[in-house]
TrEMBL record:
Localization in the cell: Cell membrane; Bacterial flagellum basal body
InterPro entries hit by this protein: Flagellar_biosynth_FliO (IPR022781), FliO/MopB (IPR052205)
Highest taxon, organism lineage: Bacteria
Compositionally biased intervals (Polar residues): 83-99
Lineage: Bacteria, Pseudomonadati, Pseudomonadota, Betaproteobacteria, Burkholderiales
GO CC annotation: bacterial-type flagellum basal body; plasma membrane
Key word rRNA-binding present: no
Keywords on record: Bacterial flagellum, Cell membrane, Cell projection, Cilium, Flagellum, Membrane, Transmembrane, Transmembrane helix
One of the GO biological process terms: bacterial-type flagellum organization
Protein name, entry field: Flagellar protein
Amino acid sequence: MTEAALIRVIAVLILIICMILAAAWLVRRLGLAGTSRQASSLRLLGSLGLGPRHRIAIIEADGTRLVVGLHPNGINLLHTFPPSESITSEEAPASSTDGTFKDALERAQPPSTPQ
């Protein structure tokens, strides 16, 4: 093989690798890569910071709402609510700063009976 042919082969290989990388970047950028089914069945409805390293969060998993405590040593399940009507993304609190976490928690709790 001559020197010119070897340079041409290397240039074509580099071009093919660049095209593969560009296609992967484009697919990722446009969101064409599919998401897994498990990720879509789990939603964070709201969270509230209790301290620098402690949080409470409401998570919806397969229609069941879970109140969990998050801390440096792990996650604790605090309460489980039965499946109910789903909260739309407009109603779901985006963060603990908008003040709707309390409203979401009250909506998720069953009505209390007076004693």
